[in-house]
Each structure stands twice: as C-alpha cells, then as structure tokens.
Design a protein that fits this description.
- By secondary structure, the chain is of the alpha+beta class.
- Helix content is 48%, strand content 13%.
- It has a three-stranded antiparallel sheet with strand order 3-5-6. A two-stranded antiparallel sheet has the order 1-2.
- The longest helix has 19 residues.
- The chain is globular.
Length: 210
C-alpha cells in the first residue's frame, strides 16, 4: 500500500493522477484532493477502443514523469504471486526490461476518473519497473470477450494491443508478452473470482497471444 502514495507523489507534476496532499502513518494514510464529478471511464465511455485511447494516453503521461523513486516497491516484489505460478518465465521477462518507470499496474476503466474536463488515474499499485506491465485494461474483466475463432481472437488482441501501445508509447511485442504472462497467471490466481467467467476469458487471451 505504501507504493500508492509514492507513485502519486512521483506523478504530481504530470497532472495525470489524483493530487496527493499529505501522508502519515508511514505512508499508510493518504490525504488526496476530492475529484469532481469523479465519473469513471467505465461509466462515461462505453466504447472499448475509446477506453484504450484514453487510458493509453494517460499511461504515457504517467510514465513520462521520469526516474522513479527507489521507495517504490520493485517489480520483482509485485511479481512474486506470478512467479509462484509461472516460475522462471517471470524473471526472464523482467531481466530483459529497459529503464524502469513508476508503473500503475492496475489502470482500468474503474481507476480512471473525470476531474472537470480531464481524466486522472487513481488507486495505483505503485511499482518500480518495466513500463509494459501497465496492460491491465487489456485483460480486465470489463474487456470485451474475444471471438470464438482462434485466428480472429488473435487478430483482435493484436489490434487492441496496437491501439493501446501506440498511445501509451509502449513496444507492442513487450506489451503482448506481459499481457500473456499476466493473463496466464491471473487465470490461476483468480480461479475463484467473483467476475463470472473471467478465468476462462483470461485463458483465451493468453492463448490468443501464444
């Protein structure tokens, strides 16, 4: 949880995240600005491609904040649950990363709010590491179901990643690699998810990116 305050403080100059006013209790209690009207992206925008565009542009602004604070939890710590499921595959992907940024790691349509006439990010995990980990919108429960046909499913995932990666200034291949890894791991870790059918959809996403 301390990563949330560290990330918000780091992003403050960008205006792309909710403003952090103060912290106490070793970073476990945060005072943030009140956002109005605070409409979520999910509620305001039904079109998924438009959600990809809004969130991708927001991710780019967050990542442009510069070198992240060493106080942010490292990606290796964040990825421990994935490592238990996928083993060395996680470490190999992390090892091939470029310069680290402050990663939100949970940016979906419920964590993007309307503040006046601008969109801002809230509720980050706050991770120091590969920017390509910021792909949650591509695999979240609200993402549209992929086509049944495997070739059509792959084409659609590649298209979605291309739209998102272009606006987020990410490498599409690395974004796809992280989306596949996270989808495979979360399909196991979320087996008892309250989102009906989500583990099955995660497996289909991973298969489409294989």
């Amino acid at each position: 949880m301390r990563g949330e305050g560290e990330a918000l403080a780091h992003w403050s100059p960008t205006g792309a995240a909710v403003e952090l006013i103060d912290r106490r209790d070793d970073g476990m209690t945060l005072l943030m600005e009140r956002i109005r009207p605070a409409t979520t992206l999910d509620d305001a925008v039904a079109d998924y491609d438009e959600q990809l565009a809004v969130t991708g542009a927001l991710v780019r602004r967050l990542h442009d904040a510069g070198e992240p604070s060493a106080a942010l939890p490292p990606i290796e710590l964040y990825a421990q649950p994935y490592r238990r499921v996928l083993g060395d595959e996680v470490d190999r992907l992390i090892a091939s990363s470029g310069p680290p940024v402050a990663v939100h790691a949970d940016l979906h349509g419920g964590n993007v709010l309307l503040d006046g006439d601008r969109w801002v990010a809230i509720d980050p995990k706050g991770v120091r590491g590969d920017p390509h980990l910021d792909i949650w919108l591509l695999i979240c429960p609200q993402a549209p179901t992929l086509p049944d046909d495997p070739d059509a499913a792959r084409a659609e995932m590649v298209r979605r990643i291309g739209v998102y990666a272009d606006l987020a200034a990410l490498d599409p291949e690395r974004a796809a690699a992280w989306a596949r890894l996270v989808a495979r791991a979360e399909a196991v870790l979320s087996a008892q998810s309250a989102f009906a059918g989500w583990p099955t959809r995660l497996r289909r996403i991973a298969a489409a990116l294989t």
